[in-house]
Structures are given as C-alpha cells and as structure tokens.
Amino acid sequence: MCRTWTGQFPIVVACLATCFFAPTSANAQADVGPQPSNPFSADREVTSVSASPDGLSKTTTRMERVIRDSAGRVRLERGPADYAGSQMVETLHTRDGEIFEASKKELSTVIIIFDCVSGQLVLLQLGLRLARVQPHRAASKDQPRQRYRDPLFAFLGARAVPNLQVEDLGLREFEGIPAHGIRVTHLGTEDVGEWQGKAVSQDEAWASDELAATLLTIRRDFKTGRETRTALMKIDRSEPDPALFEIPANFHINPTPDQIPFILGSERQSPVAH
To answer: What pTM was computed for the model?
Structure first.
C-alpha cells in the first residue's frame, strides 16, 4: 500500500518510494543462477493473457532485460508494460533545489543487481536516481560451481503428492540452447466444488543446465482463464559491460525520505528527445 506524503508529492512518486523502501525479495533471481564464468545477456518477454467477462481476451506484454557477467553477478531490469505516454517526461525537484527530467518509463523502471561476490543486493530506481544497498548472500572463493536447478524440478523423482500430476517433458532447444522441461498440474480438491478432480492450475518450466537459467515458464490458471508466459529471447553469450553492475555516480545511496525527488503540481509533459 502507498504511503501518504505531505506537501506536493504526487501519488505515483509516493508509490515508487514506498516500493523502493520495501524489502526486496531474492525470489526475483530464482530463474537465473549466479553462475560464474558463464556470462550472457537476453531480453525477457512477459506476456499475460486474461479473459474478460464479455468473453474477449486481453493481452499485456512487458519486456525485461537479464544480464549475468563472468563473476556471476546478475542484473535484472524491470520496466512497465507498454502503454501510451510511457515516453513522456516529468519534471522532478529535490529539496536542495535541483531540477531534472525523467520519462514515465524511467520512473517505472527498477533494476536489481544480485552481487554474490561482494555479498550485496542493489536496487536502482532510474527515474528518481536512487540506490538501495542491502546484504545478500556472498559466495566463497573456494565454492565449487553450482549446478542450476529450477525450483519446479524438485517434483521430479519426489514422492507422489495427491492432486498433483507431474510430467517430464524431455529435452528441447531454444535458440540452439538445450533445455529440460517439466509440467506440474494442480487438481482441485473437494473444497473447490465443481473443480474437484479437474485441472485448476498448471506450471511449466524449461530450464537449461548449460546457460544456468530458465528459458521459458508458462503459468496457467484454468479457473480464471489467465495465462502468463515468460521467455528469454535474443540470448547473447558475450561478456557484458562492467559498468552495468555499478551504481551511477549521481545516485543517492540508501536515501532518507527527504532525499526522494518530487513533482511540483502538474507539469506539462513533452516527448523525450531521441
């Protein structure tokens, strides 16, 4: 829930600040392993399809960016779903008199850097020029290279669980990279009425030992008709720019609420220069 700010802080910036100060879950990294000596960069497309009451379907797509360097550091860029006006800009002010501009897309973009080498997790909010640093699990220099395993694969070979169907989907290639697939279907119990014994939801994952990442996940909710697909695309195995894992020089690190920029009134919006 967003906090109520005094003064002329708009609701959108207050929401961003609240999310920025909230604890960050490492679950965001669950589908990319912090594996050293295995760099890559890729786009990650998240597509959600949901059914509306009138029988029509609505599709939303959000593009993310996933990057891992040879040290095993992982950078995840999360932006908003595409929408009209995302390239418009807002004028932001600071309490010490600085004025700068940021697009609505930048204000909604968050970058998470998982750095097991230094034992830090860094959260960057581009539009607000803020960075939050918190402890993260550190990898020992003598620690052997870990095999990546998507959490869903814990069901393979495990004891049978009532109301669960587990399928081994075998091997498949994505952009020339081999991946192993699994599908887990959840059946309704007697407390869901007409859905008892029927497929209620389903999770599918295709994970690559070679890349140490999950290349495709599909989550289906048969009761609501919603399906979400998350796919890695345009995979580049070259070493990324080291600057992508650094905090920009003009960012406030672990800021206080008074250091968060704000918008004065209703500023006129104009297109971002290209």
So the answer is: 0.80
